[in-house]
Hints:
This protein is 36% helix and 10% strand.
Amino acid sequence: MGEKRYTFGDIIGDPVIGERFQKVRxxxxxxxxxxxxxxxxxxxxxxxxxxxxxxxxxxxxxxPEDWHxxxxxxxxxxxxxxVLAGAEPSLVPExxxxxxxxxxxxxxxxxxxxxxxxxxxYRIHISVWGNDxxxxxxxxxxxxxxxxxxxxxGDPRAVFVYTFSPVNIDEARxxxxxxxxxxxxxxxxxxxxxxGYTGPLRHTSETLSRTRRVMTELLAEFPExxxxxxxxxxxxxxxxxxxxxxxxxxxxxxxxxxxxxxRSFRQxxxxxxxxxxxxxxxxxxxxxxxxxxxxxxxxxxxxMYRHADNPRSFAAWLDYVDTYLxxxxxxxxxxxxxxxxxxxxxxxx
Length: 349
């Protein structure tokens, strides 16, 4: 006898899977674009995405009225979720506020050294690249984690984003324990090399394997602190990058303008212009090396049908989407992971 074939109705007919599907389905309306808010930054990090390529030379538009006008147009064309990033958006709170007034769902990517005003009620992603000793070496800033915690302790907007690189794998436990002690939450990211980068932060097969092991241990030991799932771990620590595994949906790698991100996504520079040929969630990343958490949040979630051939694969996909929503959407509460032993399904192409 062959392997059992499931219909989609069979899969979501399972009460637990069906309930989780209905929970995440309520957020299928999300349509994202990203916005570089300023070319200024208060630190300089090894392997920085923003200060790679031409975008760093773009002149800044610092007029809140122009940003308000841009976001109004974005809302009219169907964008419901904004990601405010590079170089350091906390340096231009008046521009972030102008965006929030128009589209109130979104996230801000920040180094966390300057608090973002409380009335800008986006999810706030605070980047962590190791303990304070490593942050000083890689990011040239002292006492980073201590300052980040001081700025965002007790702030329900905050989630700390730990970017695993070959030099900080063994520090993740120290950082996670400290955040747990302070009642804060953490999710995981993978250093993904910018175009042309040959430095020490690029992953190898050995560091990917070690990262997978440490992530698995921390997720098991700190389930209330770590916003992640076994399927997130598997996907983001594979030797193949996200594009090779799932075929990236962002315009830079996707020529189709018919549906999805290829049609709707734009990545605006600080002068409010955008270039489809360069548009992705983290511009100037080496696409073959991309395991970025922001990329996966769109690329993996867009592959629902590839995962919908059996309950195990679909439960793993639901865990991934549940994690994505908990990390990115203010007020969304992550549920218990449903699949402990996921596998990556074969291509649906």
